Amino acid sequence: MNQERIVWLQQEVAELGCDWVVVDDPTNLLYLTGLHLSAGVLLVGREAAQLFVDGRYIEKAKGAKLLPAEGWTAVLEQEPFRQGKRIGFNGDLTSYNKVEKWKGVEKKWVPLTDFVMPGRQIKDDEEIARIGAACDLACAGMDFAINQLKEGISEQELAKQIEIFWLERGAQGASFPPIVAFGANSSMPHYHPGDRKLQHGDVVLLDLGVQLSDYHSDMTRTVFFGEPDPGLLEVYEVVREAQQRAVDAVSEGIESCKLDQIARDWITKKGYGEQFSHSLGHGLGLEVHETPFLRQRGKSVPLFQGMVVTIEPGIYLPGIGGIRIEDTIVVGKEGAEILTHFSKEVIR
Prior knowledge:
It is a single chain. This protein is an alpha+beta fold. It folds into 2 domains: 3-119, Creatine Amidinohydrolase, Chain A, domain 1 (3-Layer(aba) Sandwich); 122-338, Creatine Amidinohydrolase (Alpha-Beta Complex). The protein is 30% helix and 23% strand. It has 8 helices and 19 strands. It has helices at residues 3-15, 26-33, 96-102, 117-121, 125-147, 155-167, 230-249, 256-269, and strands at residues 20-23, 40-45, 49-53, 65-66, 86-90, 108-112, 173-174, 179-182, 203-208, 210-212, 215-216, 219-224, 281-283, 290-294, 308-311, 314-317, 321-324, 327-332, 335-338. It has a 6-stranded mixed β-sheet with strand order 4-3-2-1-5-6. The protein has a 3-stranded antiparallel β-sheet with strand order 7-10-11. The protein has a 3-stranded antiparallel β-sheet with strand order 8-9-12. A hairpin with a 3-residue loop joins strand 16 (314-317) and strand 17. Helix 5 (125-147) crosses helix 6 (155-167). The longest helix has 23 residues, at 125-147.
């Protein structure tokens, strides 16, 4: 187990007003133990922690104990767990039916907002290095994709080629199905590639992310195949400036909603405010979409050194096309450090 992270969570247990917390989702287990577990339970108290796994993982998980056949809650009748009365769990990820089964044990079950995520939001040097490597591979995939653009290739064909390119270079897989959108299809922010074939004059939106060494990357570039529509070139410059303004504004302590506002205000000033239909960005790490979220509504949080987020403004014109530019950045002492090093000059 990662002792530094376990000690941090032990300190959090008291702050949460619990005696123990239970961690049983694979992503948080990976963060705390370094193990890929499809079935495991980690109990963390104020002064102790114990991992339980089933027989498939007992050899790999050193120091772990075997899950009881009657279910993990049986261990709550054993020492040192029986002394704890308040058991916290992740209410965001735990189903109602699962909690109902747990209630067969006479404890006070306390639903909590994901209590591991505050630790996951601040990446250490190793995590940033892994995300950086994933971003490098994403950029290589972007370069590959642009070089494959030829008249007649379909969106689906190009998306498959990108995934194969990554797998051949050691990736665990794509962080999400690559978004490859030609022409007017690019006006749909989360478009799924179809059989549309590339034509001269098309705008091409490529939103790509890859998982490497458990960590994700995310980037978007919009390019033009042949001579583009002059109106879309104007939109491109608006989006590029909006993104640059947000990147330049990144600093420790800035509110997440403020970054969204900076990009959104510029796009609105240029007359496209209603065509920017999503939030500015999101955190990423062991998952491709994590907190914090950079958005104008909802909970706003200050950014701290070590947070990794995306900055991805876009303008979408139905029936014409869309422009989005996205980078993954890490919040540093002196501002944003861009991890997706790929040109944002107009490519045609």
